[in-house]
Amino acid sequence: MPTAVITGANRGLGLEFARQLLSREWRVHALNRGVAPALADLPGADRLVVHRGDLADPAELRRLSGELSATRIDLLLNNAGIMKTDTPRHPDHQTQGLHDFSRDEWRAVFEINLFSPAQLIALLRPRLAAGARVVTLSSAMAGIADNEYGGWYAYRASKAAVNSLMKSVALELGDAVIAVALHPGWVRTDMGGPDADLDAATAVAGMLQVIDDLTPADSGAFIGYDGSRAAY
C-alpha cells in the first residue's frame, strides 16, 4: 500500500488531497498545526494518521519526522502555505506592497511556504522510497515573466524560492526521487476566494494525474495542475 505524507491537510487543497488519496487506497499521514475534525469524517480514515505540530517550529518538525521514522514514503506533499498573516497592519496590507514593508510579515510567510518544506524534505530524505515523488505546491504568482500587476511581494517571492528549492532538490537527489513544484491554478479555497476558476476536487484530480504521470525527465520542473509547463 503506497504512503503519502501531506502537510496542511486539515482544509482546502490538503483535505482534498487526503480525500482523493484515501479513495485510491493509499495510507495518508497528515501533518497539521491544529485539530482536523474534517479528516476524521473521510471515507478510508482507518488508513489515516494525523500528526499535530507547528510546521513553522524547527523543533516540532524534527519531532514530527521522528514519528515517521518507520514510514516508507512514496509521496511527500508539501501543501501547507499562507499568503499573509492574520494581523494586517495597514488597510492595504493584503497586497504586501512596499508602502508598508514588514519583516515580520515576510518572515511568517517564508517560514511556512519555504523553510518548512525545505526542512521537512531534509528530515524525511532517509524515509523516501526509491522513485518517490517529492512535491511542493507553488503558485502561478511565482512566475517572474508572467507577473503583470505586482503586489503580494512576500507571497510571490516565497513561491519563486520554492521553485528554486525544488530544482535544487531534483539536482541533488538525482534519480533517487522525482521532485517538482506544482501550481494548482486559481482554486476556490479560503486562500483563493469564492471567485476562483476551479473547485478543489478538479484542481487536486489534475495534480494527482500530473504526479502519476511524472517521469525522471520531469524532475525539477514547475508544472501546472493541467500538465502544462509553467514559466519561472
**Radius of gyration, taken over Cα atoms and rounded to an integer in Å:** 17 Å
N- and C-termini, Cα separation = 35 Å
Number of strands: 7
| Broad CATH class | Alpha Beta
Q: How many distinct helices?
A: 6
Number of domains: 1
**Average pLDDT taken over every residue:** 90
Largest sheet, in brief, is: 7 strands, parallel
Helix fraction by DSSP (H/I, runs of at least 4): 25-40%
Second CATH tier, the architecture: 3-Layer(aba) Sandwich
Q: What is the CATH superfamily?
A: NAD(P)-binding Rossmann-like Domain
**Main β-sheet, spatial strand arrangement:** 3-2-1-4-5-6-7
* CATH fold-level assignment: Rossmann fold
Give the topology, please.
Layout: E1 3-7, H1 12-23, E2 27-32, H2 37-40, E3 48-52, H3 58-67, E4 73-78, H4 103-124, E5 128-137, H5 153-173, E6 177-183, H6 200-213, E7 222-224
Parallel strand pairs: 1-2, 1-4, 2-3, 4-5, 5-6, 6-7
